[in-house]
Lipoprotein chaperone
Amino acid sequence: MKKLILAAALTVCSPLLWAFSTAELSQTLQKPDNVQGAFTQQRYLKSLNKPMTTQGQFVLIPKRGLLWHMQKPFDNRLRVRSDGIMQWNGKSWAAANPSKMSGQAQQIRLFLDLLGGNAQGLEKQFTLKLSGTQQKWTLRLDPKTALMKQIFNHIDISGDTVVRRIELHEKQGDRTVMQFNQIQTGKELDAFAKQAL
């Protein structure tokens, strides 16, 4: 009898039974109509003693687009959709300068996949290792394409029903940490976000 109770207890406590898949994670992250909130990005460069910090607001509509509004240290608005990355010039959306945007564009497209739970898009370029539960999970991305191997050692993402933190470990030793807070899901979009996305 003791063995039976022990076996039942081990079965209930087994992390394998409570684990969830990247497909389930994708479904969770794609559930809300939209995700809005604030972000803080800290870029740790080997050459600097202090991290470079940027702050702002974002609006994500899964499978549709991302509006990235950096407010500090300067104002810059970017829109990422399947038709490309555009920058707001104060009057209209214009194609972002490719020479200035190439590296940033790739990161933002990556964030779109990360924040929007596009596991299929990520699996093309990374090996995914998911751990935790639906309420508290961590996803490790190890690069598998030649291009991503040149840029990243690995990427760590964590969250719950939304992404809360992304940490990029770059090949040359630099690191970027993004934290998302004041997150609201399904909230009415403001006029600018509606027009942009």
